[in-house]
Design brief:
Strand content: 5-15%
Strand order of the largest sheet: 2-1-3-4
Largest sheet: 4 strands, parallel
Distance between the termini: 51 Å
CATH architecture of the largest domain: 3-Layer(aba) Sandwich
Number of helices: 11
Bound molecules: zinc ion
Order of helices and strands: HEHEHEHEHHHEHEHEHEH
Number of strands: 8
Number of domains: 2
CATH superfamily of the largest domain: Nitrogenase molybdenum iron protein domain
Radius of gyration: 21 Å
CATH topology of the largest domain: Rossmann fold
Helix content: 40-55%
CATH class of the largest domain: Alpha Beta
């Protein structure tokens, strides 16, 4: 009880203390909705977030609007996951706001190679420079899977990086960020246990699922699943590839094709019809991260082939 009071007291005290460096909540910018969720878990009401990729937009081909660039002028931190547009736009965002600190939240994660069939889509920011420039400037490997946030194991590390960046930018509230991090990591562990339970006892030859866009590679890695993608090099599959996918999916008795709401479902729908499978929405960018991963997991579980 006394300990509880101690923690509560520290939190209250920290909140009541005058903020020396920052006036009002810390302005934090993020690219995609799951990162906003992570940021709010760590920052609570000490931060205010701006999100670049709006609901329904494709995170790969996204380009920030001038109004968003202006909205970022008050931000002190940008939480990047290393998506193509974030890498490409980093110099410009920093240029328009010199006090903006880019936090590369995915650095240090064990990256998976870009899944077969995934390429850089529309090459956002290509007007700003070549792929080689983006790569050379920061040492990021464009060929790695950028959908890092769909994995609870990755989320634990991303959360720690966010808490660290918040504490450095706003040291007055460092203890609050640390306490929020500890609490949320417990929740992530609980989610991870639930997800493991969803896939417990499934035979090794029944662990495949079929997606249009390969956003679930880290999730598949964490839970021993096999992701097969329809998309090839970020584009609609050729008729030949489509035919091959249809016959393979039929042979495996595919029950569902998972699509994300941000992308056209026309081709996926045609393939699903040819296979006799359902189209199911699995959104890697959903803001309610925990509930969404659990929902997607149950969808995969029903459809494993
Ligand atoms: Zn993607």
């Amino acid at each position: 009880m006394r300990k509880m009071f101690g923690i509560l007291g520290a939190v209250l005290l920290a909140c009541a203390m005058p903020v020396l460096a920052l006036a009002g909540p810390m302005q934090v910018a993020v690219g995609v909705a799951p990162l906003e969720h992570f940021a709010k878990k760590i920052g609570g009401n000490l931060i205010q977030t701006t999100i670049l990729v709006p609901a329904g937009a494709d995170a790969h081909t996204y380009e920030p609007k001038p109004s968003q660039m202006r909205a970022l002028s008050g931000a002190v931190l940008y939480l990047s996951t290393g998506l193509e547009f974030e890498e490409a736009w980093e110099p410009r965002l920093k240029g328009s706001n010199p006090k903006l600190l880019f936090v590369h939240t995915a650095d240090g994660l064990k990256k998976l190679p870009m899944p077969e069939g995934h390429e850089d889509h529309g090459k956002p920011g290509s007007k700003l420079g070549s792929k080689a420039d983006a790569k050379g400037a920061h040492g990021h490997d464009d060929e790695m899977d950028p959908h890092v946030w769909v994995s609870p194991a990755n989320a634990r590390q991303i959360a720690a990086r966010i808490a660290d960046a918040f504490a450095k930018a706003d040291p007055v509230h460092a203890k609050v960020y640390a306490a929020n991090l500890a609490a949320w990591q417990k929740d992530i562990d609980a989610l991870d246990a639930q997800l493991k339970a969803v896939f417990a006892g499934i035979p090794a030859d029944k662990r495949g699922f079929l997606v249009f866009h390969p956003a679930w590679g880290y999730f598949a890695r964490d839970y021993g699943l096999i992701q097969t993608a329809i998309e090839f090099e970020g584009k609609e599959p050729s008729p030949r590839r489509m035919a091959a996918i249809v016959s393979q999916a039929k042979a495996k008795g595919a029950k569902a094709i998972f699509v994300q709401p941000q992308m056209s479902q026309r081709t996926a729908g045609a393939i699903a019809q040819a296979v006799g499978a359902k189209l199911i929405i699995a959104d890697p960018l959903a803001p309610d991260w925990e509930a969404n991963l659990l929902k997607v997991a149950k969808g995969f579980r029903e459809a494993l082939q």
